[in-house]
Amino acid sequence: MEILKDIEKQIKEFNTIIIQRHINPDGDAYGSQLGLKGLIEENFKDKKCYAIGESMEYLNYIGSFDKVEDEVFKDALVIVTDCGNVERIDDQRFSLAKKIIKIDHHPNVTPYGEIMWVDTSYTSASEMVGYMAMQLKWRIPTMAARAIFNGIVTDSGRFMYRGVTPRTFDVASRLLSTGFDLEEMYKNLNTKKLSELTFINYIYSNFKLTKNGLATIIVPISEMNKHGLSAEMMNKYANTLAGFKEIKMWITFSERSDKQYRVEFRSSGTIVNQLAVKYGGGGHAQAAGAIAQNLKIVQDIIEDADKLLGE
Ligand SMILES: [Mn+2]
């Protein structure tokens, strides 16, 4: 693929490469970013490569991030993975860089960067990074493989979503051949804290269901504080109401410290991203997000969603 050669050419041309991704990182953000860093360090040993952004405690088993001074950006190549829009890039200093490359699997709503490799046919940005390594015949270090594999697993719903293709397994197979400990990775991924149990209990006890099959839960900030959670961590719970025959769409509203609500749309078939776009957000067909400014807008969203299911 020509675009992969272009990306490799840029990596060769720069001495400093900074890799970034979206705010409130998830497994795919971690995997695509830290995986790419490991790949560049292994295959281009003369480069200085940094991965920056805030970290999430529950993802620390994947790896950690670097601190970078402002002046490092001016001669650097920045590669942003897994981030559809500019406002959500973690660390807005990306704009100081000499050149920017976007690698992403979300719909290309806000194009940015001199080179864009955007393709929604991949389960994850991690799958893209793994595929790139295979196509360019890069050596794949074990820890990079583990990070990328973890990113594919989390964004594909453990290889369950329709977006999973034979290519996904080709990439996964190549990654696994590096010999990382799959069971150790899954153990880290699946270990929960008891505080999560009490929170899940809260969701099960308090959600509302309409006759059209819309389930909603509005979580006040006081409730999240009680469980040591923040709205930013709620994507982890967005599928708590999945898998019930009577529930066709489920929306989680979680109050943020600025009194706005983070909205997570999920469905078992209904297209939800248009709804998210209507409220200033976006995402995938059956998994999307937005921000609601207040409870009135929360109610508007609930009405719209219920109407959509009734059609
Ligand atoms: Mn992703």
UniProtKB/TrEMBL annotation:
User: Could you read off the lineage of the organism from its UniProt record?
Assistant: Bacteria, Bacillati, Mycoplasmatota, Mollicutes, Entomoplasmatales
Q: Which residues form the signal peptide?
A: none
Q: Which GO terms describe its molecular function?
A: nucleic acid binding
Q: What is the recorded name of this protein?
A: Bifunctional oligoribonuclease and PAP phosphatase NrnA
DDH domain residues: 17-151
Residues covered by the DHHA1 domain: 224-310
Concerning InterPro entries, the annotation shows: DDH_dom (IPR001667), DHH_sf (IPR038763), DHHA1_dom (IPR003156), Oligoribo/pAp-PDE_c-di-AMP_PDE (IPR051319)
Domain of life here?
Bacteria
